[in-house]
Design goal:
Layout lengths: L4 E4 L5 H14 L6 H13 L4 E7 L2 E13 L4 E11 L8 H15 L5 E3 L6 H9 L18
Parallel strand pairs: 4-5
Antiparallel strand pairs: 1-2, 2-3, 3-4
């Protein structure tokens, strides 16, 4: 039985949240930087630049998702970029990610947004099974391009 609950993150969550955020970055082959993770999340929360939801179970944060606001000119509406989703390994396959995705969907409903956009690597087999099961569709009508300012 899933006893986790999802709520919006606060600055009081910063220590635990930054640890998970650092693990998330490591998953995507970035060097560990707990100080940078803490600073980054603190800025997002303080400046209200993102919406972060945490999943709590057994008195600790076991997962999170972070969404950034964006706008669709063609839809003339806000949309949300679901940029980050992470669940501690020991808490995976327990429905935590689905709870976090439902919180993201509710945010879209509450803000009358056009929808949610997310991306994941083609090699992320768990995510590529999870997202369609949670009602997301692959959107292959456009190409995404990236310009790297550090190249």
């Amino acid at each position: 039985m899933n006893t986790a609950r999802v709520r919006k993150a606060t600055l009081e969550d910063l220590s635990q949240l930054a640890t998970l955020f650092d693990k998330y970055r490591i998953f995507y082959r970035k060097a560990s930087d707990l100080e940078g993770a803490t600073r980054f999340l603190s800025e997002r929360i303080t400046r209200k630049e993102s919406e972060i939801f945490v999943a709590e179970a057994e008195g600790k944060i076991v997962g999170f998702t972070q969404l950034y606001p964006q706008f669709s000119s063609t839809r003339i509406k806000r949309s949300w970029l679901l940029n980050d989703l992470y669940v501690l390994e020991s808490w995976r396959a327990k429905g935590i990610a689905k709870l976090l995705l439902e919180a993201a969907k509710q945010l879209a409903r509450d803000t009358n947004a056009a929808g949610l956009l997310l991306e994941t690597e083609k090699t992320n087999m768990i995510g590529n099974r999870l997202y369609p099961a949670a009602g997301f569709s692959i959107y292959d009508q456009t190409n995404f391009y990236w310009w790297d300012n550090n190249a």
